[in-house]
Write a structure and sequence with these properties.
Number of strands of chain B: 24
Radius of gyration of chain B: 20 Å
Order of helices and strands of chain A: HHHHHEEEEHEEHEEHH
Helix content of chain A: 40-55%
Number of strands of chain A: 8
Mean pLDDT of chain A: 85
CATH class of the largest domain in chain A: Mainly Alpha
CATH topology of the largest domain in chain A: Helix Hairpins
Distance between the termini of chain A: 109 Å
Low-confidence stretches of chain B: 1-9
Oligomer: heterodimer
Order of helices and strands of chain B: EEEEEEEEEEEEEEEEEEEEEEEE
Largest interface: A-B, 16 and 18 residues
Largest sheet of chain A: 5 strands, antiparallel
Structural class of chain A: alpha+beta
CATH architecture of the largest domain in chain A: Orthogonal Bundle
Largest sheet of chain B: 9 strands, mixed
Number of domains of chain A: 3
Mean pLDDT of chain B: 81
Shape of chain B: elongated
Strand order of the largest sheet of chain A: 4-3-2-1-5
Radius of gyration of chain A: 34 Å
Number of domains of chain B: 2
Strand content of chain B: over 45%
């Protein structure tokens, strides 16, 4: 047993311990720096820049202490940097996806299509951005799920930022029976929009007649709302329109088909069978 | 102008004593408010309805055993030491008001007019030692609107549709509304269309006269030669009420002082 200990190089042991200490101190300091930068920037920068500044500062501290640890182990940093160049090529080939995500992340940070706290839609996923990291963007969906989307996917796909502008438009698809007067329907819907205080007065609601549908006269009624009240108005306005249509006797038809076999077609024969006849039969 | 005498009765705003087992029911234009006090809590109910806004405000002090109104919004204030008083003050709206004329008003070059508008008031309910009001609500149902060049840049405001009264004094029965005189000067060589005027309501202080009619300082808007306009809150009261005995009710939510502010034309006139 004593032979084993005698074979260990004491200087190497001290160097390793020093390197570990550098690493531990580096990790602790990087966390402290992260918190300090976050605290300093809380009321000065937006959430996105705050996160970026804190990350850059903490990574910088970590890298410095990592190299100090390597130096403590006796590595020549000049040679290391040269080797790092060759290594990076090898690592780049081996981890193309990660490298692509990192580069995509840099593009995302510089382009800033969204920030932390924004509501975005990527494909079929809609959620609030909780963090923008080196490899991925993290979302919290409305049903409280955690979704990680790789940066590369975000760069390649269509991203919709729902909270970019202060106001939003709600497009309501509405169909009424063919017997209805379109002008009257338009006035009723305008009255509904006018009566709802969260429906914006300006920009004015827009009415678009979309055409003759299979079962209804198809129209679009678009109203504007403050971004934060989007869902509230979307629910309320459908209710209000239904109520107003019922009050005005405007019919919202269900899908139906009329059978017609040309001008010579006789009306369908109808036989009325009374209950008493049924019983006799 | 004198300070408001809060001891005077009857009153429908000011500082109210509020002991246990009492209920206060207020009606301010379209705002209904029911406030009940028990040993350990207050129950506050309120609702803003579309009703006759010109109706005079009213307050009714009854027992908690009497029937309470059933209103849409409710909140409960609980404490070991329930406050014995609260203050209730009318204030100016928390956002600008966009006044839209039912018929377009055109102002010829180098001309000046005075328009009179009445804007709905808000009501703030506060208790001592708490800076933020417990309640800050409009006294009538008012639509939101967007005032800006496009859907990206602009400000959230409230919309008021009205037939501008040119050189006519506001109605005597204006209820929970404040009269504002807007003096508009067109110093450019082009006709100025006054389809919409953005009234900076949060920047105005509120006063009341002996008859209980609310008013503010006069504001002056000048359309300059270029695409700029200036806004000034004048040191005179709207429709020359300076001679009357006015009482200060509350200061502006956002104080601009008596400074002249230069803005883009599109931020004042639509």
């Amino acid at each position: 047993m004593s032979d084993v200990f005698s074979n260990i190089n004491t200087e190497l042991m001290i160097a390793i311990i020093r390197a570990i200490i550098f690493l531990i101190v580096g990790v602790i300091l990087s966390r402290v720096v992260n918190k300090m930068v976050t605290r300093w920037s809380t009321h000065k920068l937006d959430a996105h820049i705050q996160l970026l500044a804190a990350r850059v500062a903490s990574y910088l501290v970590l890298v410095i202490f990592f190299f100090m640890g390597l130096k403590a182990l006796g590595f020549d940093l000049g040679v290391l940097i040269g080797a790092a160049g060759i290594m990076s090529v090898a690592i780049g080939f081996a981890s193309q996806t990660s490298a692509s995500n990192i580069i995509s992340g840099l593009f995302l940070v510089s382009e800033r299509p969204f920030s932390i706290g924004d509501l975005i839609r990527v494909g079929s996923t809609t959620g609030e951005v909780t963090s923008i990291d080196l490899l991925s963007v993290k979302l919290r969906t409305f049903d409280n799920l955690f979704v990680r989307i790789p940066n590369e996917t975000l760069i390649k796909s269509e991203v919709t930022t729902l909270t970019r502008f202060p106001i939003r438009r709600i497009d309501l698809a509405i169909g009424v029976a063919y017997k209805e007067n379109i002008e009257h329907v338009r006035k009723v819907m305008e009255r509904v929009a006018d009566a709802n205080p969260i429906c914006l007065d300006e920009p004015k609601p827009a009415f678009i007649f979309k055409g003759f549908g299979d079962s209804s006269l198809d129209m679009q009624f678009s109203v504007w709302v403050k971004r934060e009240k989007f869902s509230e108005l979307k629910n309320a306005i459908y209710e209000d329109i239904k109520e107003a249509f019922d009050a005005e006797g405007i019919e919202i038809p269900f899908p139906h088909q009329s059978l017609y076999a040309g001008s010579m077609t006789e009306p369908f024969p109808i036989r009325v069978v009374s209950e008493s006849n049924d019983e006799k039969a | 102008m004198s300070q408001l005498d809060l001891k005077n009765e009857p009153k429908y705003w000011g500082v109210f004593d509020f002991r246990a087992e009492t209920r206060l029911q207020f009606k301010f234009g379209g705002l209904l408010m029911d406030l009940a006090c028990s040993d350990k809590d207050w129950l506050l109910q309120y609702e803003v309805k579309t009703s006759d806004t010109a109706e005079a405000p009213s307050v009714c002090r009854i027992s908690t055993e009497d029937v309470a109104w059933q209103l849409a919004n409710q909140q409960r204030l609980v404490s070991d030491k329930i406050p014995q008083q609260f203050s209730l003050y009318p204030t100016m709206p928390d956002r600008p008001i966009v006044c839209r004329a039912t018929t377009t008003v055109l102002l010829l070059p180098k001309e000046q007019i005075s328009l009179y508008v009445t804007v709905p008031l808000w009501l703030q309910l506060s208790i001592s030692d708490v800076k933020k009001p417990l309640l800050d609500v409009p006294t009538e149902c008012i639509s939101e609107t967007w005032f800006g060049l496009n859907s990206r840049e602009g400000v959230m405001s409230y919309a008021l549709r009205m037939s501008e009264q040119l050189d006519i004094k506001p109605s005597e029965k204006q209820g929970m509304r404040a009269a504002i005189e807007i003096s508009i000067k067109n110093e450019s060589n082009e006709i100025l269309s006054l389809d919409k005027v953005n009234v900076p309501a949060p920047n105005l202080a509120l006063y009341v006269d002996e008859a209980g009619q609310f008013c503010t300082h006069r504001i002056t808007m000048v359309r300059e030669q270029d695409e700029n306009a200036t806004l000034t809150i004048d040191n005179v009261m709207s429709h020359d009420l300076a001679n009357k005995d006015l009482t200060f009710v509350c200061g502006p939510r956002d104080d601009l002082g008596q400074h002249k502010i230069t803005k883009a034309l599109s931020t004042l006139f639509g």
